[in-house]
């Protein structure tokens, strides 16, 4: 936008003359520029002319005022209303008040211009960062394609590969890297996916037939396979802004297929709310059989199984481990959470169920997944502490409800660079490693409940 033209001003002329404003012909459109050669008139003259015409009320787009005063023109902006006269049933402005309003209006315009300049500079800076990031991704892509992927077993733990991994995997090779990093301990094949996909469709038809025949819920409660029937309800809440996953979108059936097949493949787990976000992200980079491969193997990890099966003992051991590192790294914030009685289960469970995908910008969540698939469950809890470190000063000012709401949906301005800088500041190897601390809490939990 050209900063020299202000859509809110009544005139660009007579900048130093504060006691006159130009008369605007409505035919000059929304920019409200003064026709060449139009003389300026004093505020008193304009007020008298408007009173003779019966147009003493500020022009407005309100239907009620248009009905009362037909023929009134619209104000060019709500900011400019300060220059208008009062309605006839109110005392008229005196010259001092009119002059004051002119000065206030000019101050508003100056403020608007300054804000516009600031916003423009911010946009240019963000563009520069984005272009620099894209250039870096392109350079990294060549390294991934030419050096790392062809020599995966020897390069995956190489320092160069790990450094690039920490910065985020290029989107064009992300799916391939995820499949290699997650592995296939369950020996999932495309044929196995098709088998359980057919079973899921049969199960949905069976449940639909029971509902139409009026069968009781007890008749349907044989296994968690029946959770396939609620998948479609949860898909509608998955990335509602990405229409591709909504009913009628190209990925709706893919997402339904992966989740339905998994519910039948693991009837001991079934479908749990939150799984749809994980499966949806896999589908952004992989075909449905490949997404099922990654999804099933990922949810077979001990941490994910514990949360999705609601294994209370194991979950409490993870929470105790997390709190131990929380207290070591951020004692002041830890004490604040204790005072507010904010326990980890209030915000950690949602993060574990959706792997942060629901709570932060999608591009940042994908970089979190990149490193999580490499480093394992420890990185999930290190990320949680990194989030708290990043927003520590903000969280210290909030109460219980405000903290819970804030952590459930992090600011959209969060960038992966800023978050990973905070994650790097978290020390989880000061005395004992994560697995050792977790093992100790697991043993204590089993002893307590035996």
Automatic annotation (TrEMBL):
<feature type="domain" description="Rab-GAP TBC">
    <location>
        <begin position="168"/>
        <end position="376"/>
    </location>
</feature>
<protein>
    <submittedName>
        <fullName>Putative TBC1 domain family member 14-like</fullName>
    </submittedName>
</protein>
<dbReference type="InterPro" id="IPR035969">
    <property type="entry name" value="Rab-GAP_TBC_sf"/>
</dbReference>
<dbReference type="GO" id="GO:0031267">
    <property type="term" value="F:small GTPase binding"/>
</dbReference>
<dbReference type="GO" id="GO:0031410">
    <property type="term" value="C:cytoplasmic vesicle"/>
</dbReference>
<dbReference type="GO" id="GO:0005773">
    <property type="term" value="C:vacuole"/>
</dbReference>
<feature type="region of interest" description="Disordered">
    <location>
        <begin position="1"/>
        <end position="71"/>
    </location>
</feature>
<dbReference type="InterPro" id="IPR050302">
    <property type="entry name" value="Rab_GAP_TBC_domain"/>
</dbReference>
<feature type="compositionally biased region" description="Polar residues">
    <location>
        <begin position="29"/>
        <end position="45"/>
    </location>
</feature>
<dbReference type="GO" id="GO:0016192">
    <property type="term" value="P:vesicle-mediated transport"/>
</dbReference>
<dbReference type="GO" id="GO:0005096">
    <property type="term" value="F:GTPase activator activity"/>
</dbReference>
<dbReference type="Pfam" id="PF00566">
    <property type="entry name" value="RabGAP-TBC"/>
</dbReference>
<dbReference type="InterPro" id="IPR000195">
    <property type="entry name" value="Rab-GAP-TBC_dom"/>
</dbReference>
């Amino acid at each position: 936008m050209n900063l020299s033209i202000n859509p809110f001003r009544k005139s660009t002329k007579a900048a130093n003359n504060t006691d006159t404003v130009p008369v605007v012909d409505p035919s000059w459109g929304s920019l409200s520029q003064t026709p060449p050669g139009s003389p300026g008139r004093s505020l008193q003259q304009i007020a008298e002319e408007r009173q003779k015409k019966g147009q003493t009320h500020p022009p407005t787009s309100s239907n009620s005022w248009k009905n009362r005063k037909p023929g009134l023109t619209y104000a060019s902006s709500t900011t400019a209303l300060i220059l208008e006269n009062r309605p006839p049933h109110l005392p008229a402005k005196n010259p001092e008040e009119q002059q004051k309003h002119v000065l206030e209006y000019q101050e508003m315009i100056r403020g608007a211009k300054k804000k516009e300049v600031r916003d423009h500079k911010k946009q240019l800076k963000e563009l520069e960062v984005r272009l620099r990031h894209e250039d870096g991704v392109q350079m990294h892509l060549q390294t991934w394609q030419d050096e790392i992927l062809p020599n995966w077993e020897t390069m995956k733990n190489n320092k160069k590969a790990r450094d690039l991994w920490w910065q985020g995997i290029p989107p064009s090779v992300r799916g391939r890297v995820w499949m290699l990093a997650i592995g296939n301990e369950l020996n999932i094949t495309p044929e196995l996916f098709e088998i359980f996909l057919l079973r899921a469709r049969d199960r949905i038809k069976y449940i639909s037939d029971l509902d139409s025949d009026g069968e009781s819920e007890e008749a349907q409660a044989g296994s968690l396979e029946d959770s396939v029937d609620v998948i479609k309800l949860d898909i509608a809440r998955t990335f509602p802004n990405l229409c591709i996953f909504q009913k009628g979108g190209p990925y709706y059936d893919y997402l339904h297929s992966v989740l339905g097949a998994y519910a039948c493949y693991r009837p001991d787990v079934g479908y749990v709310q939150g799984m749809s976000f994980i499966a949806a992200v896999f589908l952004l980079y992989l075909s449905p059989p490949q997404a099922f491969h990654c999804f099933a193997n990922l949810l077979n990890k001990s941490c994910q199984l514990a949360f999705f099966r609601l294994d209370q003992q194991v979950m409490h051991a993870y929470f105790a481990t997390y709190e131990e590192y929380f207290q070591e790294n951020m004692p002041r914030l830890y004490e604040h959470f204790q005072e507010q009685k904010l326990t980890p289960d209030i915000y950690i469970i949602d993060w574990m169920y959706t792997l942060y995908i629901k709570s932060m910008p999608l591009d940042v969540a994908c970089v979190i997944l990149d490193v999580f698939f490499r480093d394992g469950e420890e990185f999930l809890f290190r990320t949680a502490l990194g989030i708290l470190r990043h927003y520590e000063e903000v969280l210290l000012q909030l109460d219980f409800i405000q903290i819970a709401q804030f952590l459930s949906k992090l600011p959209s301005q969060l960038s992966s660079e800023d978050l990973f800088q905070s994650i790097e500041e978290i020390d989880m190897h000061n005395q004992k490693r994560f697995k050792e601390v977790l093992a100790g809490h697991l043993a204590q939990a089993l002893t307590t409940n035996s």
